[in-house]
Each structure stands twice: as C-alpha cells, then as structure tokens.
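Journal club prep — side note

Before the paper discussion, L.F. wants everyone to see what a predicted structure for a comparable chain looks like in token form. Sequence:
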Amino acid sequence: MSDTIIRVENLGKKYIISHQQEGRSNYTALRDVIANGAKSLIKRFTQPPPEKLDKEEFWALKDVSFEIKQGDVVGIIGRNGAGKSTLLKILSRITEPTTGRISIKGRVASLLEVGTGFHPELTGRENIYLNGAILGMSRVEIKKKFDEIVAFAEVEKFLDTPVKRYSSGMYVRLAFAVAAHLEPEILVVDEVLAVGDAAFQKKCLGKMGDVATKEGRTVLFVSHNMGTIKSLCNSGVLLNKGNLVKHGITSEIVDSYLLSDMGKNREQGEIYWLDSKTAPGGKEMRLISIRLLNHRYEVQYNFDSEQLIHIEISYKLFEVVRGMRMILQVINSEGVLAFASTDHAFREEESKPGEYHTICTIPPYLLNSGLYFIKIHSGCPGVKVLIQGQEFLNFFIEKSIHHGSLFSEKWPGVVAPKLNWNTKLITKI
C-alpha cells in the first residue's frame, strides 16, 4: 500500500484580471453613483454599449506536480506572489483548480489567515465545537480534546466571549490550537503564525514537530524564515511565479532559493508605514521607516562583504519616555543570532516627543556571505515594551575572496571578520 498522502498532478490556477480604463477613479461618492445610474439608463437607449474593460489571464499556478508522503513536514518557499498561498488554498479545498487534479487521503485542517474557519459572532467555545464538526468529529471526540486546546491557546478567560472581540494574537492562538489538536491527518499552516508573539511561535513550531514525529501526521508549512524551514521540515517545495522549481530535501531546496535571485528579494531594502495607526508600536511610539543604506546613504539590498551597512530607523515619540532603548538583532538564514546591538549607552535619560532618525552601522569584513534578517525591538528595560521584537527586513552578503581567505570558498561561521595577523620569522634553518 502506498504511503503517499497527497498527490498533485499538473495543477494550475487561472484568474481573470480586469484592468480599469485610464483616468477612472477607484473611489465613487454616493451622489456620483446616483447620477451615473441615471446617465447610464439614458445611454442604454441613445448610445451603443461602452467598450469592455481589458481583461488579462493570470496563472497563479501552472503545471505543478509533486507527491507528499505520510508523516512528511514540507516547507513551501518562494517569493511573494510565487503561488504558495494559492497552492495551500487548493489543497485545503477553499478554491478549485483550473487544470490538473489533487488526491488527498484524510482530513485537512488549515490555518491560512487570521480567522480562517471561525464565525465571528460565536464564542471561542462554540467555534472549537464548530471546527471539530467541520472536520467530521463527534461531540465526544471534541470534548476529549477541549481542555488541551484551551490550555494550549491560553484563552481561558475569554472562552465565552465572541471571537470578533479577540485580538489578532488571541485569534491565531485559538485557531492553531484547534487545528493542531483535533487530529487531522494533514495540517496546513501559512505565515499567519507571525502574528503571534515569539514565545507562542516557538510553542507552535514545537507542536508541529510533535504532530509529525510522534503522531505521524503530515504538515505543510509556508514561511520566509529559512532557519525555521530547515529545522522543522524534512522536505521542501520551491515555487517561482506559479511554477514548481524544485521538490526534494529541505537543505537543497533552501540553498537553491537563497543562492538564486528569488531569495535576494532586491526590492526590500526599505519599509515604510504611511499610516501611523497601523505602524508597529503603541501610544508612546510608532515606527516610520527602516532602511538599509550603503556608504553613500542610498537604499541597497545586496552588499559585498567589504562594504559597510547603515541601518536607518525612523520613528515618532508621542510622549516623554524615560530609559528607552532600541535593540537591533541580525539573524542568519539558519535562525542563528549573529549579533545584537543597542543604543542604550548613547541615550539621554529622557527622550522627548518628536521625530527621530537613528543609524546603526555594521562595519565591513564582519558578516559571512549569505542571507540575513533585521529584527528590531524597543522598550524600557524592566518597565515596558514599546515595539515587540520582529523581523522587518532582510539583506544579502555576496561572497568575497577576501572574506576570511584569499581563495573563493565558503568560509564557516556566521561572522567572518578580517582580523590582523602578525607573523615573524625568528630564525632561519
């Protein structure tokens, strides 16, 4: 008997995109709707029908084929727009494929976005039973897992509150707990776990590992964190522009991604938050932007090991903050912390309201070649957290023949500093 639990054959998903005519606004006031309605009614009898909007075919997935074995933990990677989420939606039966077919043995529990499978008007308790029923479980089976789900999600106090009043973090905690504990044969998880805090993310990753190794179930996991993919998954699927690039051993898949232009994500040398209400932070502080700059203070993503890197962080303070500090962490693609730095020693005791620009400079000849992630945290030690630490940007260090050796070779370690060596000949033979 075959242990293949998912078979994907020549899978394709096509969308029709309509392009709006030039000069037309996306916003229409109510008075314009009424006026335009009257005009269109008159035109129907006096003029020929208007030209249709241009339409374009867009293939989110095209001719994708692979097999997944029972108990596999599969990391699905690729740039934004590669087709990862579309693939998961088809596997979860949320959307139908345009071409090809999929064969799945067993029940699928999906966590693709905040609120997936939850009814906002129902309480947390009611949604647990609803999700179990959708998976085909009896009330007795759900009741056996109920306490375990609630304990894992850490939402005991809000169990009888409608989930529409939950924060995004609470939503994700409960949704993941339900998906992981109601014993589906296949667990599908998109990047939604990034909404939760670091401790809960670690807890979820541990649970996904247990689901596969101890319980023999299959996990499909989408993430941009290559360290997590490598540590959790035993196989990988690499997508690019809707096409399957490679399917196989995780380390080979990740290396193929990172060493290609797909993994370099060149447009992400900066990130802005135009609306301060949605920017990371709270009532005391909000981020404005984070930029990676070269020695000419130009935005850059790819750096040579011989170049310095300026990391510019712009933010606003709305209140007087005492004892504040900014912490920068640089993490490699394996999830290993290369180093951390803080501006605490250079701050005055009191930071006044206003707009701030701070720059941290990484010197040349420090980091080894590879992909790195920038993680930012801000707070007052022992008092309050202003910005919860999270990864905002990534950058790539290209190989250099001077990076640790005169030969063009991969040098071990996260850092590969160019240190001074002094060797003297004492006596000749």
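L.F.'s comment for the group: Helices lie at 30-46, 84-91, 124-134, 139-153, 168-181, 198-213, 226-232, 250-259. Keep this in mind when we get to the figures.
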